[in-house]
């Protein structure tokens, strides 16, 4: 069925839920054990966060993988542009607030490149898996 005619459905996927948990654990390790290795936190963390969002969403949504990856990329870019406009501060959050940390406070084109790399990497994995598994 063409992507444009596919309907959104709910259904639980253990493999995607497990992937989300593993990537979340990796993000926690990066944030808590490797804060002094700035390139890992800054770049690898951004690549992994879109994979985490994809896997978490895909664990409960039955939607075409590439459509979901595009939505995840757009969502990540929206958060990044919210940082450009200092949305967290405009909403009254201060450094140390959970939402200040979630929204972030520093815009970077490099972050957007990392989000793209993460989404493209996941798309390649999904395409490779689909090529190996007959429909």
From TrEMBL:
Q: Provide the alphabetized UniProt keywords.
A: Membrane, Transmembrane, Transmembrane helix
Per the UniProt record, which residue ranges are transmembrane? 12-32, 38-55, 67-87, 107-126
Q: Which InterPro entries match?
A: DUF2809 (IPR021257)
> Which Pfam families does this UniProt record tie to the protein?
DUF2809
Q: What is this protein called?
A: DUF2809 domain-containing protein
Tell me the organism's taxonomic lineage: Bacteria, Pseudomonadati, Pseudomonadota, Gammaproteobacteria, Lysobacterales
